[in-house]
Amino acid sequence: MLNNNLILSLGGVFLIAVTVSAQSSTDFSFPADSDIRQIILDRIESRKQSMGIVVGLVKAGERRIVANGHLGSDDLRHVNVDTVFEIGSITKVFTGFLLADMMQRSEVKLDDPIAKYLPEEVVVPKRNGKEITLVELATHTSGLPRMPDNFLPADPANPYPDYSVKQLYQFLSNYQLSRDIGTEWEYSNLGYGLLGHGLERRNGTDYETLIQDRILEPLGMRNTAIILSPKMKARLAIGHNLALEAVTDRDSKALAGAGALRSTASDLLTFLEMSLGIKESPLASVFAATLEVRRPIGGNNEMGLGWLVMKDGEDEIIWHTGLTAGYSSFIGFLMKKKVGVVVLSNTSASVEDIGKHLLNPKIPLSPPPKLNIAVTIDTNLYDAYVGRYRYKPNYILSVTREGDRLFVQANAYEKVEIFPKGEREFFSKAVDTQIIFNLNDKGRAVSFTHYQNGGGAELHRIGE
């Protein structure tokens, strides 16, 4: 399956179609710490895919942490249970949880149009007389694209702070949906950012305050936030791209509900203990509501309110990932067996396979990536590759040249430099992506084949 994170989604969801039989609840046990540590060391030392990784495991009567590595190349403190990481799109789990909480308090209804919670002058796109509702935003079935097309950051290294609510409203008022609402699943950071914004407007406060008041404080999660305290900043792991180069820490405003939170393994294990019912909580019924509403994704996958659900024998893996320019994260659990896993890394190589493997060892770890070495070629060849290429009707990738450097930009995401390993083959140091340009008899690219995280697709040039 081609993942929907093409080139620079940075949203952190890779759907893996796996059919396996899970262990029974009576014989489930996590691997030994030494085995988990070996997985971590392989990622850090052999594959060079992280600077530091923290794995958290929880089940009834057991809460374990296995960690190795450092906060950064220039910060040799060891990562641990209290190290702070960006958790990217795991934020969506909290946004879905907030929606369920507000629904139970009768503050909102799932079928409320999002327009109800926006200024009257904002024109939210409709199609065939149907309006986009809160539940469609929460289940990625709104028909909205992954990102708004007016997302043009001044600083590609930290793209979100300068995207304003005014720009969000401008996009909504000018966008036309390309398919019927509620008919197709497409992962949308825009949709979740809009959902979080609508919920904060409903309560007349900001998104972070709502999350703190409704979720974090009741659960005692004191090290999860958007704006970091001085103590949290001191424990923040430095993010790195695939080349293990440090990247800028990110901020988010208008789209905070899609991926702005930072957290620790300790806090996320606390959240899992509530979700699994290991610890009593007044929020247990709210959690249950996040899984009562589901929409099909394809194969064995479903979408709840914030959670992804994958059938796993007689059980289900309920999970989400986060992937940003410098961090990767996973949270997941088996409800019937009441076991959960958290994996946090300060590099953008995905750790989803580690999380799922620990929940079910029959789900394999990903193979080591191929070694990419940049070579020197005639950069005049780049002129034949520059252009716009289509993946989906509203998903365009642009190839641009700046001097002797070649870049790819997916929709409104920041540009990513790609490096030659042959005259037609390129790779990125920032994300796991490979590109092979396909040429006509005049030597001009008519398409390129894109490979990422095990999936591939051909994108065709769409004009000058």
Automatic annotation (TrEMBL):
The residue ranges of the Peptidase S12 Pab87-related C-terminal domain are 374-451
Q: Where is the Beta-lactamase-related domain?
A: 49-351
**Keyword presence, Signal:** yes
Query: Sorted alphabetically, which keywords does the UniProt record give?
Result: Signal
- InterPro entries cross-referenced by the UniProt entry: Beta-lactam-related (IPR001466), Beta-lactam/transpept-like (IPR012338), Beta-lactamase-like_AB/R (IPR051478), Peptidase_S12_Pab87-rel_C (IPR021860)
Signal peptide position in this chain? 1-24
- Going by the entry's taxonomy, the superkingdom of the source organism is recorded as Bacteria
**Family listed:** Belongs to the beta-lactamase family.
Q: Which PANTHER family match?
A: BETA-LACTAMASE-LIKE 1-RELATED, PENICILLIN-BINDING PROTEIN
Name-wise, this protein is CubicO group peptidase, beta-lactamase class C family
